[in-house]
Design goal:
The structure is a single chain. The radius of gyration is 21 Å and the shape is globular. It folds into two domains: 215 residues, P-loop containing nucleotide triphosphate hydrolases (Rossmann fold, 3-Layer(aba) Sandwich), CATH 3.40.50; 101 residues, Magnesium chelatase subunit I, C-Terminal domain (Helicase, Ruva Protein, domain 3, Orthogonal Bundle), CATH 1.10.8. The protein contains 14 helices and eleven strands. With 331 residues, it is an alpha/beta fold. Helices cover 48% and strands 15% of the residues. The protein has a five-stranded parallel sheet with strand order 2-5-8-1-9.
């Protein structure tokens, strides 16, 4: 009975405290038409301190979306175009000799910002990718003998172009696991695209205003962690993740030879966190199974390895996730 009272109080508090989510969304929507999933994913990444990998063809407002979100939160934004000739120092920074001071000075790289757009991350070789991924994980950068903390919040949104694979360096599976979400974005529909044309042909392109400070986002993260998650929901998350590792033990015999490796414990943590953030965005103080189901594809699609057999039969991660969600018992 006491728990119910606590949940009621928590729900009322979170409903009140999460009102800023609506304000941010409205502000972003002034500039971005459609792409609801992309905007929602960025908010979830921001509220859970996770990074996002976006896959979509060029021209879908990926850069504009993260740049707009940065301006709404009054945070520093940098875009890095990944190219084959990029070096780790181009991201991290380097030591340069100053003749005037007769000493080496630190020149910080573009990673020293709150929001980073790593555009076409698979265009750069492994050493550049790993420099970015290390900074994402450690939240610090070492230049010379000094180590510098990265700014908080620190959100990396990396993009991949699915149509051009020539001259690219695919991200290693172990590295992809560092991204909390992998989001697939598609073309807008006709009515949205009509508005996009009008917006771009107008005399003044819409702009958003800064309505929050980065410190408020850091404060909101603690609130997200307070969202109540019942043990039944925790078990539901574990059942889903374990089904990717041992499909035959969970009523998915047909995928026994289709999965080369399943989701890591990082997937369980991220699915629980993302579900809490999803509930928070919906202005709820507790997680329901629908929150978990909504976040499953984005959290799991880059964490399930397929065998050659699966590829031969045209089975993709989406098929496996859909069948897992249809098979695992919902609490």
């Amino acid at each position: 009975m006491e728990i119910n009272v606590d949940i009621k109080e928590l729900n009322a508090r979170i409903e009140k405290e999460s009102s800023f989510v609506e304000a941010i969304t409205l502000e972003v929507r002034k500039v971005i038409i459609g792409q609801k999933r992309l905007v929602e994913s960025m908010l979830i990444g921001l509220l859970t301190d996770g990074h996002i990998l976006i896959e979509g063809v060029p021209g879908l407002a990926k850069t504009l979306a993260i740049k707009t979100l940065a301006s709404v939160i009054d945070a520093k934004f940098n875009r890095i175009q990944f190219t084959p000739d990029l070096l780790p120092a181009d991201l991290l920074g380097t030591m340069i000799y100053s003749q005037k001071k007769e000493d080496f000075l630190v020149k910080k790289g573009p990673l020293f910002a709150n929001f980073i757009l790593a555009d076409e991350i698979n265009r750069s070789p492994a050493k550049v990718q790993s420099a970015l991924l290390e900074a994402m994980q450690e939240r610090q950068i070492t230049i010379g003998e000094e180590t510098y903390k990265l700014e908080d919040p620190f959100l990396v949104m990396a993009t991949q172009n699915p149509i051009e694979q020539e001259g690219t360096y695919p991200l290693p599976e172990a590295q992809v696991d560092r991204f909390m979400l992998k989001v697939l974005i598609d073309y807008p529909d006709k009515s949205e695209e009509k508005l996009i044309i009008r917006e771009n042909l107008g005399k003044i392109f819409p702009s958003s205003s800064a309505i929050m400070k980065p410190e408020q986002i850091i404060k909101a993260r603690n609130l997200v962690k307070e969202v109540y998650m019942d043990e039944k929901i925790e078990n539901y998350i574990l059942d889903i993740v374990f089904s990717t590792r041992y499909p035959a033990d969970n009523g998915l015999e047909k995928y026994k030879n289709m999965i080369s490796y399943g989701a890591s414990p990082r997937a369980s943590i991220n699915l629980a966190l993302a579900s809490k953030a999803y509930a928070f965005i919906r202005r709820r103080g507790y997680v329901i199974p629908e929150d978990v189901r909504a976040m499953c594809p984005d959290v799991l699609r880059h964490r399930i390895g397929l065998t050659y057999e699966a590829e031969a039969e045209n089975i993709v991660q989406e098929d496996i996730i859909r069948d897992i969600l249809n098979t695992v018992e919902v609490p």
